[in-house]
Amino acid sequence: MTVASLRPRMRASVLLALLLPLAAWATPWTASVDERNGLPSVTRGGGPAMVARFDFWGSDWSWTGMGTEFKVDGPFQYSLKGKNPQLEFDLTATIAKPQAQTLSWDFDLDAHRDKSGVMGGGMVFTFDPSLFKDMGEPTLLPGNRGWAWGNGPRHLEMRFEPGLAKVYFERGDTSEVRAFFYTDPIRAGQQRIKATLNVTGDIELAPTPSERFGLADPATWPDDQLPWRTSPVDLSFLNAGEKPAGKRGFVKAVGEQLQFADNTPVRFWGTNLAAYALFTTPDEEVKLQAKRLSALGFNLVRLHHHDSPWVSPNVFGEPKSLHNTRELSAEALKKLDWWIKCLKDEGIYVWLDMHVERVVTAGDDIYAFDELAKGEQYAGIKGYAYVNVTVQQAMKRFAEQYLTHVNSFTGLAYKDDPAIAAVLITNENDVTQHFGNALLPDKGVPLHTRLYMDQAKAFAARSQLPADKTWRAWEPGPGKLFLNDLEHRFNVDMIEHLRGLGVKVPIVTTSTWGGNGLAALPALTTGNLVDAHSYGGIGQLEKNPLTSDGMVHWLGAAQVVGLPMTVTEWNAEPFPLPDRHSLPLYVAATASHQGWAAVMQYAYSQQAFLEGWRRADNWNAYNDPAMMATMPAAALLYRREDVHLAKTRYVFAPTPAQLFGKAITPANSVMLRTAMEKGRLQVAMPQTPELPWLQPAVVPQDAQLLSDPDQALLEATASESVTDTGEIRRNWQQGLYTLDTPLTQAATGWLGGHPVKLAAIEVQLQTPYASVVVQSLEAKPLGQSRHLLISLGSRAVPRPEDVTPFHVEPLQGSLSIAAPAGLKLYSRSAEGKESTLPAAYKDGHYLITFDGQHMANWLFLK
Length: 862
Fold this sequence. Notes:
Layout: H1 12-18, E1 29-33, E2 40-44, E3 47-57, E4 63-64, E5 67-74, E6 77-84, E7 89-99, E8 102-111, E9 120-127, H2 132-135, E10 139-140, E11 146-149, E12 155-161, E13 166-170, E14 173-182, E15 189-200, E16 203-205, H3 209-213, E17 252-254, E18 257-259, E19 265-266, E20 268-274, H4 276-279, H5 283-295, E21 300-304, H6 330-345, E22 349-353, E23 359-361, H7 369-373, E24 378-380, H8 389-404, E25 420-424, H9 446-463, H10 467-470, H11 478-501, E26 507-508, E27 511-512, H12 521-524, E28 530-536, H13 551-556, E29 565-572, H14 583-594, E30 598-605, H15 625-629, H16 631-639, E31 649-652, H17 656-661, H18 670-678, E32 680-683, E33 704-706, E34 720-722, E35 728-731, E36 736-740, E37 744-749, E38 756-757, E39 761-765, E40 770-776, E41 788-793, E42 796-799, E43 803-808, E44 812-818, E45 825-828, E46 834-837, E47 840-842, E48 845-851, E49 858-861
Parallel strand pairs: 1-16, 20-21, 20-30, 21-22, 22-25, 25-26, 27-28, 28-29, 29-30, 31-32, 31-33
Antiparallel strand pairs: 1-2, 2-3, 3-4, 3-9, 5-6, 6-7, 7-8, 8-15, 9-14, 10-11, 11-12, 12-15, 13-14, 17-18, 18-19, 23-24, 34-35, 35-36, 36-37, 37-40, 38-39, 39-44, 40-41, 41-49, 42-43, 44-48, 45-46, 45-49, 47-48
């Protein structure tokens, strides 16, 4: 659902009524309606306590699609429509808040014909089992009438009248309740079901995000002014000393830092160019985009999805006509050559992936290809690469062809070009959590399973571990030791091959991603860097670290003592999140405080840069005025180190039993979450007899050692955190985030009605949620600088069918900036034309007023 689906022109009195005190929305426990599906959702401290979804199945539990359309009709008034084509029924619902602590659903179901031999379905409610200690386990109401949860004053009850076809715990697991509208058979006809959610105690009923952000009609907002070929902001001076990229020699990993060959330290603020952007962008546009990337402050670009089968053409040519993947497309390589050359000319370095999603064909002579392909023309290789030597050979063949290819514009092979900053062996392809399961005996790949089981038995024998436990990829214990060893041996072989080809830059194995726990880290230390991916959801600033994990906590938990840490992918879903303009600031400030070596947003673009129609989506930040609004500010504060490295170093030093025997993640460890809210978080690898290759950490003498994942480093009643440098403050109860440094001062979050005063700026807005950043563009601090960049972020909503230009919410309120007299305020158009704007000057401060009618993402005061 997007804001564009709201009914237009809600009354002003209704909008004002929604601007309630934020504490009403930020209590530890809230219940609301999930805009994704119209079902109830319960959160504690910004994290999920109970989530619900629709699930329906045909015969033999074959899943059937259930599309839904949700609409906010007014404050706490919603409507829902759904269709299930396979089971041939429609669903509609009206949803309301009849009482202070009650939500109600009137479901109308219409089955068009009888269906037999099906499983049926309805709603699935999933509860966080970590809360059972305080809340007790859910219980089922008699007569298939729903469920109840809570054994004290805090209580929830979801009741259905009349009773449903079936309500039960899934496989006896009390953390999942299934409530079925239909069982076998489904009878044609209509039925109405009334559902009510009653909450008691300190659980508050909260409005949906759309209500919180304001029920305005985006069509009344101005169109975005973001040029897609140029940038009104020009931070290319940050790259001026690096032209061409590589002039200081090859990048190297030195301790926990990246340096050039001349020992100059470097931080990389980057993004991803992927898929069609790589191969179907005209050459002249490539040159323009390289200049724009530099102007926006980027100094690293990762080339991604160059080998993925859904990209046509890709690095192998046209996927549909491929007979094998033994040769690379000369035309595709020339396109990559040109991108590398143009980026290099602008002082931008390049990150190369050896494998993203490439497939293999029958013509590649892959062992047991048929069982991988399962009747298809192609087969994926994730997971299987760790046991299948012929897949490894195919990967090596690609790496050799790719890295020894001589760039037709620079005259250098990729391996010999110091503008290449790093090489990744394989993307999101670990066996320690994700793809080890693909090799198990029940997965229908018997030849690969035999290879896997033989290696598991051999490892168990030489490590004196129980053979019946070592192959069990899905559970903590001996299996995690074996999987790390399996992944490590693959990595060693691949790294030796790459070094043998002449690769000089740091090599990354794969990334921690998708819910990986700390047990995934040991194998990653085989490389020169440890890399992480994280994708968040709405409300990252409101995540209470005492109870809930956010996207930056998953990144922070990947920082290992003694190695630089990189982030090749960060973003948030689903698009278009209304608060996404906060993320660049949040990520950049965190990265600077934590000392991460490189940070890359995903993605600048997956689509080609062409004239005319342009799609708006999560993977095309280049034309997104919300994400781009604060991206230059983030680049500047991170690359200049405006936010200083933490003074305190917290090191979690798990024992082998903790690291491999427990599933420790930011989701279940309050220590991991709270430590990085204050100081720098790192994880120390332990000496592990079963893994003699794992280098035990040399813990710095200044470190504060932590050993208990359940230890909180914040007071239990805390509503905000302040970093040990005093520069970053995050109030999760109010949803406010501020940066207060000499060169960068910023406020983002729920600013409406909450004045924010920092050392040199004061923000007073009526717009509910926004970002305001003021930065010095010279070496003088705010208050003295005569050249200032002002970055402004707000909601941006694409047109129907997700096309551009976006509608951008105009800010209303004021900004006061301390600065010397004699400066002028102006904006800059897409064509570079400057327009002077009014700004009153009094008592050493400029007062800028936002009229709620016009919007520019960047202003300049100089």
